[in-house]
Amino acid sequence: MGGRRDRQRCMRRCGRDPRSRLIHDAAKTRKAAASIAAMREASASSEIPRLPSWRRIVIKVGSNLIAPEGRRISTRHLLPIARFVAESADIGREVVIVSSGAVAAGRAELGMPIASGASLGARQALAAIGQPRMFDTWARLLDRPCAQILLSRDDLQNRRRFVNAKNTLRVSLEFGAVPIVNENDSVAVDELRVGDNDNLAAHVAVLAEADLLVILSDVAGVFDADPRTHPAARMIPRLERIDEDTLALAGGAGSAIGTGGMRTKLEAAQKAAASGIPTVIASGRDGDTLLAIGRGEWRGTLVERAATRLNAKAHWLKHALVTAGRVIVDDGASAALLMRGASLLPAGVVDVEGEFRAGDLIEVVRRGADGERAIARGLAQYDAGELKRIRGKPSSAIAEILGYPGAETAIHRDDLVLL
């Protein structure tokens, strides 16, 4: 009998007791719902402010607006956007368009059903067929010079190419052209894709140094529940922040045509907010959406910018790169990074994981009694093998251990961003 009680106590401590898991999941759901309810009540009880003034805007246009229900490209929802671009240009404002729809346009051009063409090779070919159609549609509607810019995740990961993309956007706007940006789906493989144009739009907003990001789709905004299955769901007009509780209530992809859903829209808004860029999530089927934005108002949901702004390099380190390894640090190093903004010294590294090279992005993890927590990301000054040899050692000993005078830091603070 006593052995049975001991096993039950162990299961509860280790999190394997089904009753404990149910209680944990229920508590997590209640916490998320309470967080959303508090945001909704705050929005309803306060006067909704006007949009911050803007001169440069990035508009993401979803697949369902370009090729509704998977049919051929339609101008129905694109004409109001074209009018908005023209009216903005007349008063000295600049617009960058991130356009989905290449694969959907290619599929429609060939008369293929929506569910077909799911393989990587098929998607690449459909994007190659649909991309010219999509760009030509925008060029005709906008009736002004347009710059076609196709990006891949590698363009965002490589610092030199990141800067080159930034310069291309800047000069295109200086020439008076409207940049039409899309992911380069015709050559990108799954492991090298950004994955969805919502998050791509957030990266483009940072590249373009935009004042505002607008995500247009067939969704009117952010709701406290899925309006497709909950008729009583209410829209949240304003979100001061996006946290894990907010993301937990967002579902997956919203349609068979595109790759994005509400979660990717919130992730994009979170990235933009961290870089000081507010985001409006709204319906592109409502012709008044952009008219309101032109007046400094909004329809849908406004996600406010963060109080502190990441610069472009910090955004690149935090969001654009995939980590190649990890370093585990002690409490002293963790405190130095979090409290004093210091560099990470080899003396504070207790373990090295992964095979990375100098210049690769690695994650900094604090390991304590409460488990592991990622606290920072940064560019390694040493290869993994070298860092293993000098971990826990003072910087003064590096030359003797490695046989050459290397950098004093494992990650310099200029190449590090806190999470």
What's the CATH H-level homologous superfamily of the largest domain? Answer: Acetylglutamate kinase-like
> In percent, how helical is the residue content?
40-55%
Rounded to the nearest angstrom, the distance between the terminal CA atoms is 47 Å
Count of helical regions: 16
- As laid out across the biggest beta sheet, the strand order is 3-4-2-1-5-7-8-6
Note the beta-strand portion: 15-25%
Order of helices and strands: HHEHHEHHEHHEHEEHHEHEHEHEEEHHE
CATH class of the largest domain: Alpha Beta
Cα-atom Rg, whole angstroms? Answer: 24 Å
- Summed up, the domain count is 3
In the CATH scheme, what's the topology name of the largest domain?
Answer: Carbamate kinase
In the predicted model, the low-confidence regions spanning at least 5 consecutive residues are 7-16, 18-26, 41-46, 253-260
The overall pLDDT average reads 83
Main beta-sheet strand count, sense and barrel state: 8 strands, mixed
Give the second-level CATH assignment, the architecture of the largest domain: 3-Layer(aba) Sandwich
Assign an overall shape: elongated
Count of extended strands:
13
Question: Which structural class should the secondary elements be placed in?
Answer: alpha/beta
Can you walk me through this structure?
By secondary structure, the protein is of the alpha/beta class. Helices cover 42% and strands 17% of the residues. Strands 3-4-2-1-5-7-8-6 form an eight-stranded mixed beta sheet, with helices on both faces. A five-stranded mixed beta sheet has the order 10-9-11-12-13, with helices on both faces. The longest helix is centred in the N-terminal third of the chain and has 28 residues, at 18-45. The radius of gyration is 24 Å and the shape is elongated.
